[in-house]
Amino acid sequence: MNYQAMLAAVLLIPLLGSVLNGFFLRKAPRLVTVTVATLAIALPFVLSCALVFGPIASGEVIRTELFKWISVPLEGGWLEIPFALSLDRLSGILLLIITGVGSLIHLYAGEYMHHEEGVYRFFAYLNLFVFSMLSLVLGANMVVTFLGWEGVGVCSYLLIGYWYSDEANARAGMKAFVANRVGDLGFLLAMFMSVKLFGSVDYSAIAASLTNELASENASMITAIGLCMLLGVAGKSAQLPLYIWLPDAMAGPTPVSALIHAATMVTSGIYLMTRMSFLLVHSSTAMTTIAVIGAATALFAATIGLVQNDIKKVLAYSTVSQLGFMALGCGVGAFQYGVAHLMTHAFFKALLFLGAGSVIHAMHHEQDIRKMGGLIKKMPITGWTFVIGTLAIIGFPGFSGFFSKDEILYYAWSGTFGHPLLWVTGALAAACTSFYMVRLTYLVFFGQSRVEHAHHHGHGHDDHHHSHEIHENPWTMTLPLVLLAVFSIVGGYVSIPHAIMHVLGLEGDNAITQWLYPVISSAKEVMKAVHGDAHGSAALEWGLMGTSTLVMLIMSGFAIALYKVGPQGGDAYAQAAGGLYRLILDKWRIDELYQAVIIEPLKKVGDGFFKFGDRAVIEGVINEGPRGIYLVTSVLSDIQSGLVRNYLKLVFVAVVALGAWIFI
Amino acid sequence: MLTLPEIGLYFSFLLFLVGLAGVMFRKNILFMMVSVEILLNAANLAFVSASKITGTIDGQVVMFFVMAVAACEAAVGLALIIALYRTKASIEADDLKALRG
Predict the structure, then answer these.
(1) Which fold has domain B4-92?
(2) What number of other Cβ atoms are within 10 A of residue A61's Cβ?
(3) Which residues in chain A touch residue B27, judged by CB atoms under 8 angstroms apart?
(4) Contact state of A652 with B20 under an 8 Å Cβ cutoff
(5) Residue A48, class by beta-carbon neighbours within 10 Å (0-12 exposed, 13-18 middle, 19+ buried)?
(6) Neighboring chain A residues of B24 at a CB cutoff of 8 Å
(7) Does B26 touch chain A (CB under 8 A)?
(8) What are residue A281's phi and psi, to 5 degrees?
(9) Is A636 in CB contact (< 8 Å) with chain B?
(10) Where are the domains of chain B?
(11) pLDDT tier at A647 (50, 70, 90 boundaries)?
């Protein structure tokens, strides 16, 4: 089997799984459905490993063209857009994450969803999602990527609204879809402008034709492409101002939150920015905007996370915040650490979501952390893996988040587009992260148990699982947790900071920088040529690292001290903050703001169009036209009275008139 | 002073008007039939008078044809009226509005 065929198989097997589950195995037993779905992701994972650790690691780029797709005339020539796949080192990382974490989550979901009826629908969507996500990262040109980009949006919509009989879930799905559509517009515009500027949408063709001269001649166009792309990124990767859909997306089943809204789909914006890094770095406006948006998102979402009481909502806001970190990393020119954080985040956030799902599953769909506590004794595996995930996300030294996040923060200060203020914002966000994650972990797993037993009785399902005792879930749910916990620890060692490498006696760049060198080298060269060398130093790196570690330890200790007494521990501070607390509890009332500023006026405009366009014009034509015809015909039909005498009278009148006309 | 054929011509016009009014305003089909006969005879009178004025015989020949047709018409018309009466139990023209638009 050659590499091209393997690559095509990686993409198509999940699609096959989706079709099988969606159309042919609807009546099949649950075990068959789950096995088919999991294998449809696990098999590509095996192939991906063979590809990525084989030819990709040795520096090859695998390209394959599945079929000719679009061909349109363009300025004398033809714009040819084949359905082409390309696997390089960047898409290789994403490929391993998607299929690897994806198969673990499929395995987990098989158990998590075992109460559900008609679970084939869930797995068909989930496989379809993986297919879309793979075409997003494997697409050799923007159009294939866009196909995947839309595909993941649709699957996200379908899966958020999976329990569609509850209207709130359906609305959350719709909100996600609409917010994503706004972003998609940006991506589309960026695509159109690249066609205009480069006459191509193929990444490698654009990279080849983008010279420094071309970039400086079309500086405003490049900036426009960058900013439009940022809009797309903001939609898909939940950045300000389009992040609002992600917290609501938690309405979906928890494995969906883990796979789509933490590990894969939401990171596609980061992937796109890294893919287009060679273009973005030509515009310092675009890069700075990305960095500022990223930093602002990181801090903004982290503040909301401080006060949430729903276990999934806390994780959702922390995802938005972490995505902000990744965007910040890309924006300051440290694309490789954006990707590194993408990877470590995929591990620890999937772990945290699956852990949360494990808790929710064991507690029969209770999500309020105020009603948990002390669970680590009953669910040791979930508990300790969750602790590992928390340590990773808050950047405890030695865990994966420490390396990737601190590298991003270091570059936020010292990177090409970095600025100390960006570091301050990022560090504040990291401080908030430490606080709310430790708060979450402590309230769920430690302290006194606040579990209410009464509410189990009213539950609809009755099966063996219905013992009132909370206990650890079966291996299909804990195995993914354990594996992800391992990766949450070791995943960070690809991006060991230079300062530490130096101490360890390692020379050269760290693993992620070396691995991604072919992808980001041109961006690096541009940054070096245009903006000079990055202005960091080992001392600065140590200082920043020490500061953020210290802040992390203080905030974690503070959180534990505060919530030792239970969830009411923070009440005194909440009361002291007063209005500010309520504002943050209401998520800064951004949804309300959008409602008032965008949605209501839009509704008014829509209402106007409805009243004028629909009611007046369309219904006017449709209703009044026939009414006019009816009026005319009713006069005409009245002539046909059916009375012979009347016809005769008309004949008489006509004859007289005719006679008068002829003879007079 | 009007000659006899001329008087006949004017009289035929009046007769025609009488017949026409009868067909137009009568509601009983039988009377309408009678009025139709008057119309035909008005036409006959006009033919004969015209024939006398022009001194040709054509008009008088046509009159015989018309009388023959009138006889047929009366026979067929009366038969229709009887058939109508059997189905509708009425010979009022206003009751027959099946062709109303």
Answers:
(1) Helix Hairpins (1.10.287)
(2) 16
(3) 645
(4) yes
(5) buried
(6) 645, 648-649, 652
(7) yes
(8) -65, -15
(9) yes
(10) 4-92
(11) confident
Q: What is residue A533's predicted lDDT score, i.e. its pLDDT?
A: 64
Q: Look at B93 and A639 and tell me if their CB atoms are within 8 Å.
A: no
> In the predicted model, what is the mean pLDDT of chain A?
87
Q: Is the pLDDT of residue A530 over 80?
A: no
CB atoms near residue A624 (< 10 Å): 10
Q: Model's pTM, two decimal places?
A: 0.79
Q: How far is B30 from chain A (nearest CA, A)?
A: 13
Which letter does DSSP use for residue A74 in this model?
E
**Which one of A167-176, A638-647, B68-77 scores highest in mean pLDDT?**
B68-77
Residue type, A232: G
Phi, psi of A325 (to 5 degrees): -60, -45
> Residue A385 has what pLDDT?
92
Q: Which residues are A161's β-sheet partners?
A: none
Put simply, whether B96 touches A (Cβ < 8 Å) is: yes
B81–chain A Cβ distance below 8 A for any pair:
no
Q: Is the peptide bond before B5 cis (omega within 30 degrees of 0)?
A: no
What's the pLDDT score for residue A535?
Answer: 61
Q: What is the pLDDT of residue B93?
A: 81
Chain A touched by B25 (CB under 8 Å): yes
Distances (CA, A) of A212 to A232, A522, A525, A528: 25, 11, 11, 12
Report the pLDDT value the prediction gives residue A244, as an integer from 0 to 100: 87
pLDDT value at position A306? 87
Q: Which tokens belong to A169?
A: 């879930």
**H/E run at residue A77:** strand A77-87
Q: How far is CA A201 from CA A87, A143, A234, in A?
A: 17, 7, 21
Q: Based on the number of CB atoms within 10 Å of its own CB, is B59 exposed (0-12), middle (13-18) or buried (19 or more)?
A: middle
CA distance A587 to A581: 10
Q: What is the largest CA-CA distance in chain B?
A: 55
Provide the residue type at A541 as one letter. Answer: E
CB atoms within 10 A of CB A628: 10
pLDDT tens digit string along A573-599?
Answer: 888 877 888 887 888 888 888 888 888
Please answer whether residues B26 and B7 qualify as being in contact, where contact means their C-beta atoms are separated by less than 8 angstroms. Answer: no
